[in-house]
Design brief:
The protein is an alpha/beta fold. Helix content is 35%, strand content 12%. It binds the ligand Nc1nc2c(ncn2[C@@H]2O[C@H](COP(=O)(O)O)[C@@H](O)[C@H]2O)c(=O)[nH]1 and magnesium ion.
């Protein structure tokens, strides 16, 4: 076998093989030139793992043409060539709201409703959204007023009550099992899945803090005494905040405020227009699938895609960008039984009271028309989709957009994660600490290696290593966010959010318009399949363990 210093038969001194690299960084070798002249079949016969290792060692790979924030990352292979339909969610996907301005707006509107409709003290209208406090993926324990960060297996990593971090002893007392079962999520624990949840959760945390300082709240579901709000329970607070948040969404309060200053909350940069045009030119059928109502969708997409125009129907505007539009979809219900499918009369915005006879509509007659509700079954029938795996759906909600579509219908999914580049930057800042953590973990493994049943003394009796590990883990977490650490990891462990994302999102990226930078036949390759611990030992079949 060739070693890194001895090029293999293929003689590849430097060839960029990474899926994100558009151009080779060095093309000095003849084989490298042949690769880029299209002689791939020839190379496919001779390229060895050793070649690839040597390419990586001399820095020829891992040089990406796209910046980290512009890349589309893949958890699983996705061949865009096999994708016939690409669908888009609207809010926080096509419409990339400006943060924290949009969070602040929601926070203020929720506080206003709590004061005007629920009798909360007026001082809460002075409070502000704290951008550096909460992260997505936390579990909210409304019985106790706590936010819980868990790892991929539900192990409790950190708990914050209101805004106060709990000590290890307090965490143990509150969660003696040490982990949260997946069956509890959505029941006792609410998952903070979308960016919409952050201002809601922030109001809740601030109220918990306020009432803790001004009265004794009851930890538990029961409202013990209803005479004055000082005796509300943490759960009552959550019910009120939840109801206030629903009001700002369902009564159009948030949407009207957003539309009153669209340039502030949603500046138009043409990138979405460009992406849709390119995907259309690449032969993809495009569709819109949003939970927002038609009146709001019309205003937002009119703003973002105003340049779309159709000579035959000058009023069609943004609708021309899609082959098919569904508003008020009610995801995730849409992916199950769904609701009645109705057509919207676009010039009045009203749903029409006749049943849409799916079989009578041809795909060509759908362009520019807008439907409301429906279900995935009706959608597949209308569009003639037979295999869910030919659809790529782009959305920001790990549950409503991604998990159900992927799990139940095999749609391929692209999750939009606006926090991505901030996380990547923090990872860069934490690099040295992470290296130190690996060194300490190596030390721990070495201390135990080879011990058998005759061993009497426990290594690291004083717990110095344990203490040091804890200290470095905390410092890593602080690099991301001093309250909750990283979105995807807690030091070396992956979080529940990261776990769900890697399981259900085939692809992920910071903003949907990043798709514009890939050709319609692009093959997104996932990282080489992860090895299991027993596989990660070259020559292991000939080794003993001591
Ligand atoms: N009643 C509630 N509606 C909410 C809440 N959070 C978001 N929303 C609304 O959902 C859609 C999202 O649309 P999509 O394009 O992402 O599918 C949008 O209309 C929001 O106003 C909530 O907590 N309660
Ligand atoms: Mg959305």
């Amino acid at each position: 076998m060739a070693s890194p210093s001895q090029p293999s038969e293929a003689g590849l001194s430097a060839v960029a093989v990474d899926s994100g690299a558009a151009e080779p960084t060095h093309l000095s070798s003849a084989v490298g030139r042949r690769l880029h002249a299209g002689h791939v079949p020839e190379l496919a016969r001779v390229l060895t793992a050793e070649d690839v290792r040597s390419l990586k060692a001399n820095g020829s790979v891992h040089k990406f043409r796209r910046a980290a924030a512009q890349r589309v990352y893949s958890n699983r292979d996705v061949n865009l060539d096999h994708i016939t339909h690409i669908g888009f969610d609207m809010d926080y996907t096509l419409a990339a709201y400006v943060r924290p301005a949009f969070d602040q707006l929601q926070y203020t509107l929720i506080c206003n409703v709590l004061v005007q409709g629920f009798g909360y003290p007026e001082c809460i209208q002075e409070w502000r959204f704290d951008e550096g406090f909460l992260i997505r993926g936390l579990l909210l324990d409304a019985l106790r007023g706590n936010f819980v960060k868990c790892d991929a297996y539900g192990v409790v990593l950190r708990v914050v009550h209101g805004r106060q971090r709990l000590s290890e002893e307090e965490v143990e007392a509150a969660y003696p099992a040490g982990n949260i079962a997946s069956a509890q999520i959505g029941e006792e624990f609410q998952s903070m899945d979308t960016l919409y949840h952050l201002p809601i959760a922030n109001v809740y945390a601030d109220l918990v803090e306020y009432f803790d300082q001004n009265a004794n709240l009851t930890a538990g579901k029961a409202r013990l005494d209803q005479r004055e709000h000082s005796q509300l329970s943490y759960f009552n607070l959550w019910q009120d905040v939840r109801a206030a948040a629903d009001q700002i969404h369902d009564r159009g309060i948030l949407k009207n405020e957003t539309l009153s200053d669209l340039e502030k909350y949603l500046p138009n940069d043409d990138s979405v227009y460009r992406m849709l045009s390119l995907l259309r030119a690449a032969g993809k059928q495009l569709f819109l699938l949003t939970n927002s109502e038609y009146w709001y969708t019309d205003a937002v997409l009119g703003h973002i895609l105003g340049r779309y125009a159709n000579e035959a129907d000058p009023n069609a505007g943004w609708r021309e960008a899609f082959d098919f539009c569904i508003v008020s979809a009610r995801k995730p219900l849409f992916f199950r039984s769904g609701t009645a499918l109705r057509e919207i009369e676009t010039h009045t915005g009203r749903p029409m009271l006749y049943e849409v006879r799916v079989k009578h509509l041809s795909a060509t007659s759908l362009r520019g028309r807008v439907f409301q509700g429906g279900s995935i079954g009706a959608f597949h029938e209308l569009t003639g989709i037979v295999r869910g795996s030919t659809v790529l759906y782009v959305g920001d909600h790990i549950y409503a957009d991604v998990l159900v579509a992927r799990k139940a219908h095999h749609w391929r999914t692209l999750l939009v994660v606006p926090e991505l580049s901030a996380e990547i930057k923090a990872l860069g800042r934490a690099r040295e600490l992470l290296d130190r953590l690996s060194a300490l973990e190596f030390l721990r493994a070495e201390m135990f290696r080879g011990l058998d049943a005759s061993a009497r003394q426990r290594p690291d009796e004083e717990g110095i290593l344990h203490h040091e590990l804890q200290k470095v883990r905390e410092s890593v977490e602080d690099t991301f966010n001093t309250h909750f650490g990283g979105l995807f990891r807690s030091a070396q462990r992956t979080t529940l959010f990261a776990h769900q994302m890697s399981f259900f999102a085939d692809l992920y990226t910071e903003r949907c318009s990043n798709l514009a930078d890939y050709p319609g036949f692009y093959y997104f390759s996932s990282a080489a399949s992860p090895r299991m611990p027993h596989e990660d030992q070259p020559g292991f079949e000939n080794q003993t363990h001591r």
